[in-house]
Predict the 3D structure of the following.
Amino acid sequence: MSGNNVVWHDQAVAKDERSELKKQKPCLIWFTGLSGAGKSTVANALDRWLHDNGYHTYLLDGDNVRHGLNKDLGFSDEDRVENIRRVGEVSGLFVDAGIITLSAFISPFRSERRMVRDMFCPGEFIEVFVNTPLDVCEDRDPKGLYKKARTGEIKNFTGISSDYENPEKPEIVVDTATTSVDVCVDKIVQYLCSNAVIPAYSLKEDNTAQVS
Amino acid sequence: MSGNNVVWHDQAVAKDERSELKKQKPCLIWFTGLSGAGKSTVANALDRWLHDNGYHTYLLDGDNVRHGLNKDLGFSDEDRVENIRRVGEVSGLFVDAGIITLSAFISPFRSERRMVRDMFCPGEFIEVFVNTPLDVCEDRDPKGLYKKARTGEIKNFTGISSDYENPEKPEIVVDTATTSVDVCVDKIVQYLCSNAVIPAYSLKEDNTAQVS
């Protein structure tokens, strides 16, 4: 069977029907930033907030996907790009399923983030730059990776021996060095409200949402 | 960064919480059978029925996945196994998200179906063998592929020049040559009810569900 014989099947249940059932506008919230910046922490906290408020979500995590779908990939430049490509495609399936999808990956290169953005309709891809300074990330070093990168035990480590290209026009910027996780979540929730992903909430000081 | 430095992150929102929000027991309904057997047709009809009855579903289709996630794969034995492996892993993510997931792939080999089954907890993987006879499939030939396989234009075509290994213990067997699509759907819905994937329904003759 050759590649020429692949035919696109229309799906009987359409994307907007799946979204309507969930009473939400699906999107991909893409967290990018250095190792230790707090991507997974903020993404998990946002996921918790959305879930507790009745939204249908799923979180794709760089490390977790590496154990399953992408366990055949290493850390060469080529494999890192393929890692992000597959995560983008899978995120596309989740968004097609009507899910508010969160992804937390270093994704250091503009070209790969652009590749993923281009897989989505305008407004569906929401880039969150977790802009925690390198010295703070290195000081945290939750997995001891920066130490190994400094001694050369780990090669091509983002921020040390490999570039991180700052997003030029991210939809949202947060910094876990100067603001609490709750405040970061609050900022993203307000963006989602402003862009009609979820209805408007009035956020109380304790970050408990109330429908306005 | 080497493969040794991958750490599993616990996800803040657990699988059972995602399922509870959707009021369903997530599972993977895996359709297998020859090209033209009716896998996509029955899967789409089941998807429609489940969606219309308020269930949160998603359908992964062999042809559709080939255009995105697996567009880098060809049709060699190795690539076909990798195709199914990735679909299994992605299905695992959807089930983890609390979704009733449907997959329609020829998946001709017992070993690859076993590989996917082994990714899931007992009871989560439901194999539906669409056991439409080869002569009926070839007679339908909706994409003209059997004709090309007979002339040798397509190599390694399942059922003609490559084996299809019948499932030994599928959870459900349907045959679209002798039964209507509605009756096939009905049979699967009854299995889902019997196995508490969805609540018990009493099915009227027109296949409209009523809660019993």
In short: Chain A touches chain B through 57 residues (CB under 8 Å). Helices of chain A lie at 15-22, 39-52, 62-67, 77-96, 110-117, 134-140, 145-151, 181-194. The radius of gyration of chain A is 18 Å.
